UniProtKB/TrEMBL annotation:
InterPro entries: Hist_DNA-bd, IHF-like_DNA-bd_dom_sf. It comes from Algimonas ampicilliniresistens. This is DNA-binding protein HU-alpha. Residues 62-79 have a biased composition (Polar residues). Residues 58-88 are annotated as: Disordered. Keywords: DNA condensation, DNA-binding. One of its GO terms (molecular function) is DNA binding. Pfam families: Bac_DNA_binding. It comes from the Bacteria. The keyword Repeat does not apply. Belongs to the bacterial histone-like protein family.
Amino acid sequence: MNKKELVAKVADHCDTTQAAAGDMVNGMLDIITGELKSGNEVNLPGFGKFIAKHRPSREMRNPQTGQKMMSKAKTSAQFKPSVGLKDL
């Protein structure tokens, strides 16, 4: 399922237009993205949890030259499904 199909199903389920459902889906995704950028987590009981995971910089080696260098620290999004979702 892609985003367009998701919007169509939300519109059908909520008995609304696809434009309104698209605004709802985009709004939800914007809020989740904003919270993760702030370092917060988003917990949806019965579905799962979105977590902003910080990865510190580390020393690595270039396989071609053998030269040591440092990777950049970064924050990435992680999703942990709830127990109910795992059982499906």
